[in-house]
Amino acid sequence: MGSGSASVATTTSERRLTRCGIRPTAQRVRIATLLLSAPQHLSAEQILANLRACGARISKATVYNTLNLFAEHGLIRQLSVDGSRAWFDSNVDPHYHFHDLTSGALIDVPVPEVEFSRLPAPPPGTEVAGIDLVIRLRKKL
Amino acid sequence: MGSGSASVATTTSERRLTRCGIRPTAQRVRIATLLLSAPQHLSAEQILANLRACGARISKATVYNTLNLFAEHGLIRQLSVDGSRAWFDSNVDPHYHFHDLTSGALIDVPVPEVEFSRLPAPPPGTEVAGIDLVIRLRKKL
DNA sequence: TTCCTTGCAAAACTTTTGCATTAAA
DNA sequence: TTTAATGCAAAAGTTTTGCAAGGAA
Q1: What confidence tens digit (pLDDT) does each residue in A110-124 have?
Q2: What are phi and psi of A17, to 5 degrees?
Q3: Minimum Cα–Cα distance from A119: chain B residue
Q4: Alpha-carbon span A116 to A3, nearest angstrom
């Protein structure tokens, strides 16, 4: 590689963090790489377990702090689908969700699959910041 | 009142519990009376505080047990609008919600105010058990 | 150096549970 | 009297926080 100057491998995740103004530390890059590798829904505990299983040295506090940081910067989206825990969605484009009550699974529903022909006007002095739609599913029959 | 037989004042809440097959104990009747007096959204902690402020003798465990019991019997509905805690909705008729991000307030949206002209087909082997719609509101301007 | 990040442990919260006591039928 | 519900305290689960140590700029 370049002569003289030390070179640092720069991954996609790393660039993405830098572009958001987030310092790409080792732990942050690992979380970003895991979460942003594909559209998915993970809990903090799942992320911690997954990273540690891969040999990463990372604490629970850092996972939570990092997820909150990412969410503040719009890199991920925090979902409240059931009361039990938060789910972090790596897909930040507008979309909705199926929630399978049997398995607990979350499935993305693209925006074009849902059309509203009527929506209530927001109360005076307010405007719509977002619409969360969760379609609960149960086993048929 | 009636000669000989002891009489018990029977309130609307009491009858409603009995009709559901729930034994109308003093604590349950107080919770039902508070919650079902009007359509509203309350947390377990709010219910506990409110009842105790009114002089009721009731424990936190009983509030949670009772709310879960009511929800199982379809007397109230448990909502997950923010990750922080559960909200209990005394309106069990189908409806949606505004969620004011500034104040945290929840406002009912009647079904006729929302119309879907397009909804995704549920995955094979599943059927729609319910649709939760939360319209998040922020301050305008 | 200086500032930011991490890890650990403890704390903060919400909700559930075990068990002795009390109340309801 | 027999069963079910309550209260209390402790436990459990998730998330946050304080602080010393470590790492980047």
Answers
A1: 999 999 999 999 999
A2: -65, -45
A3: B114
A4: 59
Could you give the count of Cα atoms lying within 13 Å of B111 in the half-sphere of its Cβ?
7
Regarding pTM above 0.90, the answer is: yes
Identify whether residues B99 and B74 lie together within a single domain.
no
Task: State the average pLDDT over residues A16-35.
Answer: 96
Which two structure tokens, joined as six digits, stand for A67? 């997820």
The whole domain housing A72 covers 3-88
Stretch 68-97 of chain A: residues touching chain B, C-beta under 8 Å: 78, 80-83, 85-86
CA of A55 to C1' of D21 (A): 22
Beta-strand relationship, B95-100 and B126-139: parallel
Residue A19, phi then psi, degrees to nearest 5: -60, -30
A131 and A79 within one domain = no
C-beta neighbour count of A60 within 10 angstroms: 12
Residues B19, B65 share a domain = yes
Nucleic strand D near CB of residue A118 (< 7 Å): no
Å from the A23 CA to the D21 C1': 20
Nucleotide nearest to A60 (CA to C1'): C7
- The confidence score (pLDDT) of residue B69 equals 98
Q: Which residue has the tokens 């849902």?
A: A114
Give me B105's structure tokens: 């307030």
Q: Which residues numbered 32-71 in chain A sit less than 7 A from strand C, measured from CB?
A: 57-62, 65-66
Query: Mind giving me the DSSP string for B28-95?
Result: HHHHHHHHHTSS-EE-HHHHHHHHHHTT----HHHHHHHHHHHHHTTSSEEE-SSTT--EEES--SSE
Provide, as residue numbers in chain A, all residues whose Cβ is less than 8 Å from the Cβ of B135.
119-120, 122, 128, 130-132
Quickly count: other Cβ atoms within 10 Å of residue A127's Cβ.
12
